[in-house]
Each structure stands twice: as C-alpha cells, then as structure tokens.
Design brief:
Helix content is 27%, strand content 18%. With 67 residues, it is of the alpha+beta class. The protein has a single domain, classed as Alpha-Beta Plaits, CATH 3.30.70. The strands form two sheets. Strands 1-4 form a two-stranded antiparallel ribbon. It is globular. The termini are close together. The structure holds iron/sulfur cluster. Iron/sulfur cluster (SF4) binds next to helix 1. Iron/sulfur cluster binds next to helix 1.
C-alpha cells in the first residue's frame, strides 16, 4: 500500500471510514473525511492495512482511493 487519499468531491461525510480506522482517517473542518497527516502507508502494519482496505471497500461512494 503506497498511498491512500479521500476524494472530497465524492465523500459525503458518512463517517464509516473514520469509525472503522480512526488511526488513519479523520474529519476535516469541512466535515468530510481526510487522511491524517504523517501516515506512512509504505511501512504500515499489516493489520492496519487490512482495516484501511475494509474502509476502501466499505465507502458507499467509492471516495477512498489507493494510489
Ligand atoms: S466512508 Fe467514504 S463517504 Fe463516508 S466519510 Fe469516509 S470517505 Fe467519506
């Protein structure tokens, strides 16, 4: 996993990703999800990678993209 981003044009702020993996996702001032600063996806623990992948699959609008 190299990098994950939230496309704010697609996010509807449902909170599923933040609820699932709050180590990685947070709400911005715009009430939409974003990836926290300083998240190192390349050296991420396997457990956390799996949770992020669950969040990608669980996002109702497909707003979370793995780059
Ligand atoms: S799960 Fe998707 S739509 Fe919901 S807050 Fe996260 S990025 Fe936004």
């Amino acid at each position: 996993m190299k990098k994950v981003i939230v496309d704010k044009n697609k996010c509807i702020g449902c909170g599923a990703c933040v609820g699932l993996v709050d180590e990685v996702f947070e709400f911005g001032d715009d009430s939409l999800a974003q990836v926290k600063n300083n998240i190192n996806f390349e050296n991420m623990k396997e457990e956390l990678v799996e949770e992020v992948q669950d969040a990608i699959e669980g996002c109702p609008t497909g707003a979370i993209e793995e780059k």
